Structures are given as structure tokens and as C-alpha cells.
Amino acid sequence: MSFSDLFDSEFKQRNKGHFSAIVRVALADDKFAPEEKLFLDKLAVRLEISQAEYEEILENPLKYPINPPYLHEQRLERLFDLARMVHVDHQLGDTQELLLRKIGVALGFNAENVDYIIHKALKLVDRKVDIDTFLFEMQNMNK
Q1: Maximum CA pair distance of the chain?
Q2: Do residues 67 and 130 make contact, with C-beta atoms less than 8 angstroms apart?
Q3: DSSP letter assigned to residue 92
Q4: φ and ψ of 91, to 5 deg
Q5: Residue 136 pLDDT
Q6: Does the pTM of the predicted model rise above 0.85?
Q7: Which of 35, 66, 92, 131 could potentially form a cystine with 106 if both were Cys, beta carbons 3.0 to 4.6 Å apart?
Q8: Alpha helix ranges (H) inside the chain
């Protein structure tokens, strides 16, 4: 196996882990809203998830571990995707919020301030900010 194959394989596994985390959030209320399904379809393409992998992840989203990115900005990008998934059906159920906090910690955010981070992320997504604004606001929220 070449170095590039190893990198591609690791990248693919990380994307599957990220996608499965988003599926877990979407399924927290045991059903997909049409907007959630549409978001998942688009995200699967963006993350290069094949149709077979997509169906496998939908069937068993716990199969793939959450692999937190090393870079803080990449963690924020994943949080952005997750927050949008929670927000897409405009109903933040207790189960979804709790799962989002757990996934936030799994992504590498500090457990002591994950509530603050999640709250800020959801407020930004509620305002329908783009990814660049989200990243800027999240990186500068304590200034």
C-alpha cells in the first residue's frame, strides 16, 4: 500500500465517522425529516460517501467511530455540519441536544465549556450564517 493510498483510506474513514455522527444526530428522534434527508444526501456527496456506504451507515451509524480532526478549524467545520443538522427541522429536541453535546466532546471540545460552544454554534446556525462567518465567530467568541 502506498503512502497516498494510506492517506486516502484514513481520509475516507474520517469522513465516514463524521457522516455517521451526523446520521446519529438526525436519528436522535427516531425519524428523518425531509429536510434532514436532503441535507444527508448532499453531505454524502460532499464527503465522498458511496451509495453502498450511505445505506450501510444509515442502517448502523454506530459502526464508525468519531475521529476528531487534529486542527481546531476542522473541528469547527464538523460542528457547523452537526449544528445545521440539528437545526434543519427547527425543533431542538432534548435527545438531539444531548447527542450534539456528546459528539462535541468526542470531536475534542472541552467538556467544561461544550455547552457554551454548542449554544453559540446553534445561535449562529439559527442566523443562517455561512461557514466563513461561523468559523470567524466561533474562533473569536471570547474576545
Answers
A1: 46
A2: no
A3: -
A4: -135, 110
A5: 95
A6: no
A7: 66
A8: 3-26, 34-46, 51-59, 72-88, 94-106, 114-126, 131-139
